[in-house]
UniProtKB/TrEMBL annotation:
Disordered: region residues: 1-28
Cross-referenced PANTHER family: CYSTEINE DIOXYGENASE, CYSTEINE DIOXYGENASE TYPE 1
Protein name: Cysteine dioxygenase
An MF annotation (GO) of this entry: dioxygenase activity
Family: Belongs to the cysteine dioxygenase family.
Phylogenetic classification of the source organism: Bacteria, Bacillati, Actinomycetota, Actinomycetes, Kitasatosporales
Keywords recorded for this protein, A-Z: Dioxygenase, Iron, Metal-binding, Oxidoreductase
Length: 206
C-alpha cells in the first residue's frame, strides 16, 4: 500500500450524513470494475484474518485507482447537501461490498468506527482524515474521551486499510474540487444500510 502523507488539520468542518446508498446494476457496472470484483473475491475467499485480508484487498485495489474506465459517469455524481454513496457491488454471500463515495468540498463524516474491516482508495482528488484513540473515563461515573492520534492527507492513488478495533476516524474533503474514493467493506452494506458501527459524540482534544 502507498505511504500516506501526514499533515495536521486545524479547522473542523460540519459533519453531514451520507445520502442513501444508490445501487449500481446492469450496464453501469464497467468491465474494469467487474475485474476488480473478481480480484477481491479471490482474496476474501481465502478466509484470512481481517487485517491481512484488508492489506491484500488494498493491493488489488491500488492499480485500478485513477483509471478512466473504472467508474461510470453516474458513479461520480455528488449531492450538494451531503457526501454521496454509490453501491457498486454487494457479494451474494455478504462477504464484501464496494462503494464509491463522492465528496464535494467541505463535506465530512462524523467521528465513527466500522462494522468490519475496510479498505479505502482515492480515485480522484484528495481526502483528509483524522484518526482517534478512545480513552476510558478517568474516574467512576466519568465520560470516555477521544484523543486525536494522527492526521493524514490521502491523495489520488493512496490506499489504506484497517480492521476493528482501533478504527475510529473522521474523513472530509479539504480540497477545492470533488473527491471520489472507493471503499471495500467486509460486510454487505446494502443489507446493513451503512458501514458505521458507532458514531462517537464524545469530548475530543481537537
Amino acid at each position: 500500500m502507498d505511504v500516506m502523507e501526514r499533515r495536521r488539520q486545524a479547522a473542523p468542518m460540519a459533519a453531514v450524513t451520507p445520502s442513501s446508498i444508490a445501487p449500481a446494476t446492469g450496464p453501469r457496472t464497467t468491465g474494469r470494475l467487474a475485474r476488480l470484483v473478481e480480484e477481491i473475491r479471490e482474496v476474501v475467499g481465502r478466509g484470512l484474518p481481517p487485517d491481512l485480508t484488508a492489506y491484500l484487498v488494498g493491493e488489488r485495489l491500488a492499480p485500478h485507482l485513477g483509471a478512466a474506465d473504472l467508474l461510470a459517469d453516474e458513479h461520480r455524481e455528488g449531492d450538494p447537501g451531503r457526501y454521496r454513496q454509490h453501491l457498486l457491488h454487494a457479494e451474494a454471500d455478504g462477504g464484501f461490498s464496494i462503494v464509491a463515495l463522492v465528496w464535494l468540498p467541505g463535506q465530512s463524516t462524523s467521528v465513527h468506527d466500522h462494522v468490519s474491516w475496510c479498505v479505502t482508495g482515492v480515485h480522484e482528488g484528495e481526502e483528509h482524515e483524522r484518526r482517534y484513540r478512545l480513552l476510558p473515563a478517568a474516574e467512576p461515573g466519568g465520560r470516555a474521551r477521544l484523543v486525536a492520534a494522527e492526521d493524514v492527507v490521502n491523495r489520488q492513488g493512496s490506499v489504506c486499510g484497517f480492521a476493528p478495533p482501533g478504527d475510529i476516524h473522521r474523513v472530509w474533503n479539504g480540497g477545492s474540487r470533488t473527491a471520489v474514493s472507493l471503499h471495500v467493506y467486509g460486510a454487505d452494506v446494502s443489507r446493513l444500510g451503512s458501514s458505521v458501527r458507532r458514531v462517537y459524540d464524545l469530548p475530543a482534544d481537537r
